[in-house]
Amino acid sequence: MSSANPKVGFISLGCPKALVDSERILTQLRTEGYDIVPTYQDADLVVVNTCGFIDAAKAESLDAIGEALKENGKVIVTGCMGGKESDIRNVHPSVLSVSGPQQYEQVVNAVHQYLPPKQDHNPFIDLVPPQGIKLTPRHYSYLKISEGCNHRCTFCIIPSLRGDLVSRPVGNVLDEAERLVNAGVKELLVVSQDTSAYGVDLKYRTGFWQGRPVKTRMRELCEALGSMGVWVRLHYVYPYPSVDESISLMAEGKILPYLDIPFQHANPRILKLMKRPAATEKTLERIQRWRAICPDITLRSTFIVGFPGETEQEFQELLDFLDEAQLDRVGAFTYSAVEGATANALPGAVPEEVKEERLARFMAKQEAISAQKLQQKIGKRVQVLIDEIAEEGAVGRTQADAPEIDGLIFLDGATHLEPGQFVEAIVEDADAHDLWGRLVN
Ligand code: SF4
């Protein structure tokens, strides 16, 4: 199909929050009459949304920019790495423009400058089809509730890239969620840098949604999202006391009984060196309390092993924590120095081989725990959201599994189902990551 519309190629790297930024930029461009095309050759210009979180992500971003320059020649860079323009220009001096995270207007202005739009500018930004572009499948969507972070974890440079916490007004978030649900979204994934801090910067100001007052606060937000009749899943929550209030909503079935809660370590000295939020909370006691309120809760977490100064004994404490906490899903990384992070100056760097050996021990222990937890699901009846249909059957997720990071459930033979459909299944088999089930008619 030939079209005279200007054509933009788009590369989106990084985390779900960056994906939301990409969706917003793409939506704006499409609203203005740009065509979004899938190849460098078809594009008049390419936008690269970069990630600068760790060195490997930076290298990937620089490679992506290099490839786009080679294949197309006209490249606009934005995103987390754009916060440090010199890092990009030193390697790729010929990029047309560089902007930082959430600088939607600068990116769009740069596109206007180098590839003028065909139609008049329309300021309406909406992530919902048909106007909106979603990079995630249509039946689930990330819902970003705030930008930035008030913490200063010593291994992290996100606050210097994205600034302090800025919560989105609760009415805006709920309007967007409602439009997504009306457009067919079946699962809302609430994301931010620190979801439990939602509204702190606005002093939990009362906003409005559908003519009713709603506080800009996590519990009230969850309650309103829970009234929309779709799965609501919380990511990046910290164990502040206020989180307990949301657990009761999970127990009541209003939001999914699922918490993605990055603990990062268990030893108090290391947590203090990391300057983690809620580092002084008694985490195991909290977990027990959450399970008492909501026995079905799924807990996912991430950890860093080999943080500067971590002793064998402190690492052992982390392993003991895994034994006691019995978390359902865990991701782990070895500590790697990020340029600009204050942890780089801490003494006692752990040798690479020790880090790797600790990571292997950590993952082996958690794999055994995860496998055992999944075994306990065999014979149980579960609700499943279908993600895709493959040759052998349907592939979906249970309430315990977030897209892209957790496991899947395979329903062999169920090729008549459709993505976005809710079904019931009996779990028949499990390994350390995934489940196999039989459809219940
Ligand atoms: S809470 Fe810590 S790790 Fe998370 S974004 Fe804020 S500073 Fe970074």
Automatic annotation (TrEMBL):
Q: Which family does it belong to?
A: Belongs to the methylthiotransferase family. RimO subfamily.
* Ranges where the MTTase N-terminal domain occurs: 6-116
Functional note: Catalyzes the methylthiolation of an aspartic acid residue of ribosomal protein uS12.
Q: Which domain of life is it from?
A: Bacteria
For this UniProt record, the keywords arranged alphabetically read as follows: 4Fe-4S, Cytoplasm, Iron, Iron-sulfur, Metal-binding, Ribonucleoprotein, Ribosomal protein, S-adenosyl-L-methionine, Transferase
Q: What GO cellular component entries does it have?
A: ribosome
Q: Which NCBIfam families match?
A: 30S ribosomal protein S12 methylthiotransferase RimO, MiaB/RimO family radical SAM methylthiotransferase
Single GO MF annotation: protein methylthiotransferase activity
Residues at which [4Fe-4S] cluster 1 binds = 15, 51, 80
- Pfam families reported in the protein's UniProt record: Radical_SAM, TRAM_2, UPF0004
Q: Which InterPro entries match?
A: Elp3/MiaA/NifB-like_rSAM (IPR006638), Methylthiotransferase (IPR005839), Methylthiotransferase_CS (IPR020612), Methylthiotransferase_N (IPR013848), Methylthiotransferase_N_sf (IPR038135), NA-bd_OB-fold (IPR012340), Ribosomal_uS12_MeSTrfase_RimO (IPR005840), rSAM (IPR007197)
Protein residues bound to [4Fe-4S] cluster 2: 149, 153, 156
Q: Specify the Radical SAM core domain's residue ranges.
A: 135-372
Reaction catalyzed: L-aspartate(89)-[ribosomal protein uS12]-hydrogen + (sulfur carrier)-SH + AH2 + 2 S-adenosyl-L-methionine = 3-methylsulfanyl-L-aspartate(89)-[ribosomal protein uS12]-hydrogen + (sulfur carrier)-H + 5'-deoxyadenosine + L-methionine + A + S-adenosyl-L-homocysteine + 2 H(+)
**What subcellular locations does the record give?**
Cytoplasm
Q: Which residues form the TRAM domain?
A: 375-441
CC cofactor note: Binds 2 [4Fe-4S] clusters. One cluster is coordinated with 3 cysteines and an exchangeable S-adenosyl-L-methionine.
Could you tell me what this protein is called?
Ribosomal protein uS12 methylthiotransferase RimO
What's its EC? 2.8.4.4
Cofactor(s), names only, from the UniProt record: [4Fe-4S] cluster
